[in-house]
# Entry
Amino acid sequence: MNDSKIPAWVNIIVLPLINILFAFAFSAIIFIAVDVNPIEAAKTMISGALGYQEGIGYTFYYATNFIFTGLAVAVAFSAGLFNIGGEGQAYIGGLGVGLACLGLDHTLPFWAILPITMFASMAFGALWAFIPAYLQAYRGSHIVITTIMFNFIASSLMVYLMVNVLNQKGQMAPVSRVFESAAVLPGFHEIVGWFGLSFSESPMNLSFLIALLCCVLVWLLLWRTRWGYAIRAMGASPSAAEYGGINRKRLIIIVMLISGALSGLLSLNEVQGYGQQLKLGFVAGYGFTGIAVCLIGRNHPFGIILASVLFGILYQGGAELSFDFPNIDREMIQVVQALVVLFSGALSLMLVKPTERLFVYLDAKKKPKNQLAAEA
Amino acid sequence: MSQPHNQQNIALELCGIDKKFGAVHANCNINLKVPASTIHGIIGENGAGKSTLMNIIYGFYIADSGDIKISGKVRKLTSSKEAIRYGIGMVHQHFMLVDNFSVLENVILGAEDGALLKPSLKKARTELERLAKEYRLDVPLDALVEDLPVGLQQRVEILKALYRGAKILILDEPTGVLTPQETDHLFKIFDALRDKGVTILLITHKLREILAATNNVSVMRQGEMVAHRKTAETNKEELAELMVGRKVRLKVEKSVATPENELLSTSKVTYTDEMGVDRLKDVSISIKSGEIVGIAGVSGNGQSELMSVLAGLIKPNSGQVNIGQTCIDSMHPSSAAQMRELGVGHIPEDRLVMGLIKSFSAEESAILGYQNSPTYNGKLLNKPKMINQECARLMEEWDVRPRDPKLRSSLFSGGNQQKLIIGREVDKNPDVLLIGQPTRGVDIGAIELIHKRIIELRDQGKGILLVSVELDEIMALSDRIIVMFDGHIVGEVSAEQANEKILGMMMANIMPDELLTTTQQTTSGEQI
# Structure
């Protein structure tokens, strides 16, 4: 009954905003503690992330990663599965992209390579999610444990491959050769160039549009198909789903394959778009941040886009901030991000009651006035 | 609002208790006087505000306004700890016991005297032995709670409250899990407690119990206290009318059944759960078209498992289920989806756990189990319009209120949720309908409608298996009654033969003499 008290838009829009404002308020205290004017800091952050075209490009380049990993977490979470293996799935997805690019960039044109790399990223990511999914469905191993362990396995596997197999002959660096331009995703500045517009050069690339497309597809899957119905039913009430004839084991596998595939797509942006070569550690925590993005985005594709842009701003604006203010280093930016996660995720329910009360109070205040007006 | 005024002391008095949850006015200006050493019944439909009121008295909720007087003094009860301090004890509908603790350990849990357990246990033992003697509440103190039958577990709960010094005892629907005989015993305990000066508040929706056990009764309806009566001066019909606010027909009218061909049968079905407990032992039943077969028994004696096997939710370890030409056994299990295709509809016992999904909208809950049906789906995407229309139609046919397919399932009242679920299953026109607890937590008005519809379905030639813990319901609807105990079938009685005494004995695994002669010929193999 509780949720019926306040209008839905309060839950969807006002509450997340209040949570974020609280996080910023606490960040301001920290900035003041290190003698930085929080207003100045906020200005630098906003203008660094959104004030000029290259900054915007970086913001959306980061956001692309978060959309993919956020969606991956959201799909699994809708089914009641907590996939925290996005990191490893994206990493292995990158291996798939890298192998496809290295193998094909001399022979095929871009339009033929793109479907193959997309498929490879999804297939490799899905494969990495399949094993934990199988273990959960048929062996009862908890998916949180197995997915997080698979992050480490992915990391070790990639180190082995980059050091021993995929590195270049005669070089110490654990990186592959740079892909030929035929394999590289076109940057956003190039894409708008096709339409006669101009945009500063930035790492933002075609994969951002693919990410948006994925949002639409995930929304359709979850809310407009019978499979999405089954996924949400299992997440909301496993016993009712079983009653409804939904095969739990098979669904766990399918959901995790989709989730892993979405994580894998991240590597389009990182490997085929930005890095243009295979190297170590390119996932850089985006998989874990995806969990926070999904939490703040309330498990909804549209919310995930907004949350991803927010985190894009935090990443890009934070980088500018630590560049401009000597008192602020990268770790402090992480504290700000952590506060956003803390207030929007862990403490997101803390402000529900006060907000509810505020709205009930406002409602009560409004009513007598209306009644008076009606009587008059 | 005339309330019996005695010269006795008033143990508990409520003055103008008011409680709102958002827009819901759960308790509206409640006044109540409970004289000391009496048994006071509080009766009302689900959602009438009984539980809210009791939770206010027990300190779980704080009233928005109004006073609680205990023995004449106004007390602020801000937590259950406070309530216990002022001598209020509560026995919840679902026991709050630790299964693998002994009775003694359960009693002192939360009332230990210090960091060390031994002195507390010792003190508790002598005190409990005294209480047991005084109130005739015999319980083996060193037995593990999980080994005790529910009747005894309930006594542990009562002892727990008394041990904490309760002078006012609140019992919330205490008889839901008891056989009629156990219920009688409980009422005897009530009498003993009352005679020793304990005041008892009995919350129930069963009219029969109010009349059997209480001195005074108060009726709640829609958050208000609508009447106070002396039990001796009222009757079932009056109380029912006060509860619902209009005249109610308590009897179900039905013609004699005309069973025809067999639709579903089981032979020697057994089921052992994951813990290795035998839940079903050689259960053989048969359901014909045009009859209602009732399964009676204290809850937890295999009825749920039998339903689950027939619904395809669990697979039997041995034995067979035959539906038409299809045979289901441990080697050829059937899923819930396949069972639906075979024409078996299932209205689950617990609608909130299985029947619908609380966070889903009504229209989404209204396709649960049929989500893959071509009616609701195109090639890839589903058909939201169709889903909406179908739900609106169901709501119209089954009088589900409010008629809003987009409203969240959890926001409907129990009765309306149940009507939606029954509507969903009946609408698919199954041959066999498994119905579990059709009216649990459902208001009297909806019960009337549901019972009428179940009889109609029977007359249309459906085979119906009815599981209910409400004996009255089983007796009112069934044509044949099968009684289960500890996973096996004790016996079968026809509707004409059945009465509370016979069923009550069978529920305790005793074959009544009047049945022995007739049933021995038919089911001699199953006699114990």
Remarks:
- The CA atoms of residues 110 and 141 of chain B lie 17 Å apart.
